[in-house]
Write a structure and sequence with these properties.
The protein is built from 26 helices and twelve strands. The chain is of the alpha/beta class. It folds into four domains: about 60 residues; about 140 residues, Bacterial polysaccharide co-polymerase-like (2-Layer Sandwich), CATH 3.30.1890; about 180 residues; about 250 residues, Rossmann fold. An eight-stranded mixed sheet has the order 5-12-11-6-10-7-9-8, sandwiched between helices. Helix 2 packs across helix 13 and helix 6 crosses helix 8.
Length: about 725
């Protein structure tokens, strides 16, 4: 098997492949359909029965009430998922299969035909049961569908209905076993919850008394926020006062460092809140006295003048008083500083105490809030358990009906399997696909010549003509048939391919037998003779000659006689019934055909017939079988290769070409023979051309035109 290159793959005409191998495709399709039909007849029919019912959920356990908050309406996904397993469980199947109430042995109503081992029989029975929840769209549903399968339609129906009833019985028994224990658990849990609720209420009352907080959490948050705001306010006040004291300490320390003159200047210019003790007044009076004294001296009074001495005495007294006042100021600042430090210590002590009180309050508040929350939870739990207990009796009706019937299983009308339509459809599709696969595989494996492009690509030779399939001998049928046009095209192409009229000896060869070489030669000779060429046919096939049978002539005297004796050409050439067409038979078959063909006598004979006839066509044996054709190709002017469409592989055809070229032969071209132009889309246009341009078609067209001319009346000259 050889692979196609990309160009060859793209050239595949898929529809043409189907037409070429339609027989294989049809046979494969028929076999697949027959196989599918046989399979459907061999399969034992299986019937399907189904029943639908609603499954009610269990709500009896204390945990269920706590988790769902009582009789919750939402679907319990885990519960319903479990029920699918329960319906196909061994316990339910045992109930459905029947149990003898006296011995407890299985009655095997449905598993009797599934083996002697009861356990394995139940496992096989489980395989014939399918359970699923029914849903439409996005709506949630608690409807279950149980489907059962059995070869007996009655048992299929009975198994579905019995399995549904068995599941209901299993659920009833399970609930009856749980009912007493569940109710006792509910009562116990309710009493415990009530006792816990009362204990928490007593703790809550004691906490409320100690912390002076309410029982409920309605205003509890407001009280906490209020206490927090009070503490924060005190904290801000402490920060502000502490900052004020710190500023005063800084200022007082700076003042106490100054001497009398600096302190006096500071008191005159500072706006600080300090008890100045009349310092400013004394300082002003001293200044005024000194100014008056200076004026008196300038007025002419001397230092010893009584007025001057009086003023000096007063100034001295005033200055002494000023010193005392400054000392009082320093004493006042020192006392004030001690007082402010005492205040600061008192504020810090107060804030520390408030912080402890707020921390204690916060702790008592948190504990009280926790007690309120626990009390509310205990109250809610006790209420839920009481509600569950109150509803236990009302739930018994609901619990005694674990399912609600929607539809019972009925007797199935037709088998569920085998699905004849599906199997036949799959068989048909598989046969078609398999047939197409085989067809395309054969096409890929086929390396023969299929198109003219194949000839030109792989042989490098021109295609002289395309000859249709099933063409007969034209000298018997006549030259007016549409198929004769193919040979007229061949004759014309040969004329244009010849370099001169003297190159008129052509050897017709093929790779193997049965490629239509002899028929092609006979018909080419016939149309050439019709065209006015004196044409000689030489049957050089000294192995298995056939051409004499086409003309009904004797084969006693012919080419072999001429080559081995001194006979003249006129003695071995016969005139046929067709004008301008002559024939030389092979003669008696020699023992060594290649030797007499590769002789001087053969060369002279070819030279002589070339001068006497316009066209010499030589028929030789298949070139791949014997060397005769190669010998003849070396003697003639041209060699024409006849290739049967879709027969020989390309490599063999290349060997045909090499065989001719190795002996120095000149290949004029290739005739693509036996082409199915009616079904092969590559060549369908040849059929229309041959038919349209054939002499018979031309005569019919001329007769139709003449008839139409006679039938039509003459039109007036001024007709529009």
């Amino acid at each position: 098997m050889s692979s196609f290159d990309e160009e060859n793959t793209q050239s595949i005409d898929y529809w043409q492949v189907i037409r070429n191998h339609w027989g294989i495709i049809l046979i494969t399709l028929i076999l697949s359909v027959v196989t599918a039909f046989v399979i459907t007849t061999l399969i034992t029919p299986t019937y399907e029965a189904s029943t639908r019912f609603v499954v009610n959920e269990d709500r009896l356990t204390t945990a269920s009430f706590r988790a769902q908050g009582g009789l919750a309406e939402q679907r319990d996904i885990a519960f319903h998922g479990n029920q699918i397993i329960v319906m196909r469980s061994e316990e339910v199947l045992k109930i459905a299969d029947g149990i003898d109430p006296k011995t407890g042995a299985s009655l095997r109503k449905f598993s009797s035909g599934l083996g002697q081992d009861t356990q394995k029989a139940l496992e096989r029975l489980k395989l014939s049961v399918q359970v699923e929840m029914v849903s439409e769209g996005i709506a949630q549903s608690t409807v279950y569908e149980v489907r059962t399968y059995h070869s007996d339609k009655v048992k299929a129906k009975d198994l579905a209905n019995t399995l549904r009833d068995s599941y209901e019985l299993y659920r009833r028994r399970s609930r009856e076993a749980e009912r007493g224990e569940t109710y006792d658990n509910q009562i116990t849990d309710y009493k415990q919850a009530e006792q816990r609720k009362e204990d928490l209420f007593e703790e809550l009352k004691e906490s409320s008394r100690r912390s002076n907080l309410p029982y409920t959490a309605d205003n509890l948050s407001d009280l906490k926020n209020e206490a927090k705001e009070t503490f924060e306010l005190k904290r801000v006040q402490q920060i502000n006062l502490t900052e004020s004291i710190r500023q005063y300490e800084i200022e007082a320390a700076d003042v106490l460092k100054k001497n009398d003159r600096e302190l006096l200047a500071y008191l005159e210019t500072s706006n600080a809140i300090i008890n100045k003790s009349g310092v400013s007044e004394l300082n002003r009076e001293i200044g005024e006295l000194k100014t008056g004294r200076s004026a008196d001296i300038l007025g002419g009074l001397g230092e010893s003048h009584p007025a001057i001495k009086l003023k000096d005495k007063i100034v001295a007294e005033k200055e002494e008083d000023l010193k005392i006042s400054l000392a009082d100021v320093r004493e006042s600042i020192t006392q004030r500083l001690e007082l402010e430090k005492s205040k600061k210590e008192g504020i810090e002590e107060t804030i520390s105490k408030l912080a402890e009180e707020f921390t204690d309050y916060t702790k008592r508040y948190t504990e009280h809030e926790r007690l309120i929350e626990e009390y509310n939870l205990a109250k809610a739990e006790a209420g839920a358990l009481k509600f569950a207990g109150d509803n236990t009796n009302r739930q018994q009706i609901y619990l005694n009906n674990p399912i609600k019937l929607v539809s019972s299983a009925t007797l199935p009308e037709k088998p569920y399997s085998p699905n004849v339509i599906l199997i036949m459809g799959v068989g048909t599709a598989a046969g078609l696909v398999f047939g197409l696969s085989i067809a395309f595989l054969l096409e890929l494996m086929d390396t023969s010549v299929k198109t003219m492009e194949d000839v030109e690509r792989y042989l490098g030779l021109p295609v002289l003509a395309v000859v249709p399939q099933d063409v007969g001998l034209l000298h018997e049928l006549g030259g007016n048939t549409p198929d004769a046009e193919a040979y007229r095209i061949l004759r014309t192409n040969i004329e244009f391919k010849r370099k001169s009229t003297e190159d008129n000896a052509i050897n017709v060869v093929s790779g193997g037998a049965g490629e239509g070489k002899s028929t092609t030669l006979m018909n080419l000779a016939y149309v050439s003779a019709q065209g006015g060429y004196t044409t000689l046919i030489v049957d050089a096939d000294l192995r298995r000659p056939r051409l004499h049978t086409y003309f009904g002539l004797s084969n006693e005297v012919g080419l072999s006689h001429y080559l081995t004796t001194d006979a003249k050409l006129e003695n071995v050439v016969s005139k046929t019934s067709t004008e301008n067409l002559f024939f030389m038979s092979s003669g008696q078959l020699p023992t060594d055909a290649a030797s007499i063909l590769n002789s001087r006598r053969m060369t002279d004979m070819i030279s002589e017939v070339k001068q006497r006839f316009d066209l010499v066509l030589i028929d030789s044996p298949p070139i791949l079988g014997v060397s005769d054709a190669s010998v003849i190709s070396s003697e003639v002017d041209h060699t024409m290769i006849v290739v049967q469409h879709r027969k020989l592989p390309r490599k063999l055809l290349q060997r045909v070409k090499q065989s001719v070229e190795n002996v120095g032969g000149n290949i004029i071209g290739v005739v693509l023979n036996n082409v199915d132009v009616r079904s092969d889309t590559e060549y369908q246009y040849y059929t229309s051309y041959y038919t349209y341009y054939s002499p018979e078609a031309v005569k019919e067209a001329e007769a139709a035109n003449a008839k139409k001319t006679v039938a039509e009346p003459d039109q007036p000259d001024d007709a529009y």
